[in-house]
Specification:
It comes from Belnapia arida. Its EC number is 2.7.11.1. By secondary structure, this protein is of the alpha/beta class. About 40% of the residues lie in helices and about 25% in strands. It contains 16 helices and 24 strands. The chain has a 9-stranded mixed β-sheet with strand order 5-4-6-7-3-8-9-10-11, sandwiched between helices. Strands 16-15-17-18-14-19-20-21-22 form a 9-stranded mixed β-sheet, sandwiched between helices. Strand 19 and strand 20 form a beta hairpin. It starts with 6 loop residues before the first strand and ends with a helix. The relative contact order is 0.09.
Amino acid sequence: MTAGVQKVPTGIDGFDDLTLGGLPRGRPTLVCGSAGCGKTLFASTFLAKGARDYGENGVFVSFEERPDDIVDNVASLGFGFDELIADGRIFIEHITINPAELAEVGDYDLEALFMRLELAVEAVGAKRIVLDTIESLFSAFTNVAVLRAEIRRLFDWLKERGLTAVITGERGEGALTRQGLEEYVSDCVILLDHRVENQVSTRRLRIVKYRGTAHGTNEYPFLIAEDGFSVLPVSALGLGHMVHEERISSGIPDLDDMLTGGGFHRGSSILLSGVAGSGKSSIAASFLAAACAAGERALYFSFEESGAQTVRNMRSIGLDLGRYIDNGQLSMHASRPTFYSLEMHLAIMLRDVARMQPSLVVLDPISAFLDAGDHRDVQAMLLRVIDYLKSHGITGLFTHLSHEHGSVQTDAGLSSLMDAWVLLLNREANGEFNRELYLLKARGISHSNQVREFVMTDHGISLIRPYLGEQGALTGSARRAEEARLRREQAQRRLDAEVVEQRLEQRRRRTLAQIDALRAELEAEELEFRSVAEGRRRSDAQAQSDRLAMAKSRRAQAADVGDE
């Protein structure tokens, strides 16, 4: 908050971010615009949320509508004006001013008004006040000098009592208000605009001035929905994105394996592009199922099919998204791109993201917006979505329909803003279309550069490496035929090898048999040799024994002859 200017929060989603805190405390704020742009609703939201959420009671001064009508008008928004009135936190003062009757009396000033406002403020101890609308109050003035003096007097009266005031005014010709004076004495001026372009209505807000403080100066789309007034602060988005090292699964294990470490970085922006029928929505559904299976919440925006149709179609590939819808983890929103303006689509999507706070958001397909607005407007809108998701650490998955096969650029011109890009191809060969997947880029992650065949079955999605042959990459039936041919060749080679092995085994056995026969023959000859040698040894021993015996016999005979 800027020093010197105290601010009071309005409780209006997005508006307090634009104004860096809310409206100037104790000062008047002018909210002007044409009929039906949401002035009274802005003021009612400011008053009701101040009493309910910030403990600041308020007074609603109406110069046109009756109190009962005001209560009934905001009842559908859940403000509970009747309860706040009963609790003494809001007081509605209805003041009717008829210029024709006042002219009969004479000069007219605001003394009586100040007295009634004083009593109303004291009745509830108000800190906030709404004057709706100021044209009715000053319709009795014909003298411009007196009018200017009374307007300044009213604003000074509000400041003296420290009331944070919201004053609504009808837009005039060539000026912000009919009188052309209120904007000069107001400390803050907010312009609401309701325009119709190409038969599509859009509401926008612009802060014309805000004394003493910085604020957003662009036009911002805003919504009037069941919870009141909300603004999308698109200019507050910057490049202060959250960075995560954590990985998330795509729900397709083969795709996760193509990225080193498995899966994509959390909080990244992922683009799926391809021609019709290439499988973009099926991959997106796999991301959704994986996030929900991990116990996280996911948000799916469809611009071509209803949520029920998507749930039915995904059952054919084994994904049951219906159970995640039933338990509140998955929310599906389907709408035609031409149903709202681009700004309204942006505001609605980011409002739903802020409410649900999912970990994954899918837009399917972003190319559908190209028929809803100018190319640059579409790019700007999608850029804001990407920045918003990144700044909140939410993973964004964007599908894009390509009209040219194999195109490596998107009609929306967002490919350079994406952290990861998965290109899906349909290849025609041999009278059939085969799906292929190519991971073009994945910032900060080493990944495979191979083209994978993309196959969908009733058990999910799988990626098959194509056969890279002499004729190039083969997929589908050509791949299967080539693989079958290779299997036959491998089987024949195995059979030939078995025959050669059998022949070698037979030869080995014959050789071993021959070796055994030669070994037996050798052993027989060795045995014969040993027998001969043994007989020779014995014969020699016998001869030696005989010689000894003969010698002994001869010595005995000689002795006998000597004795004689």
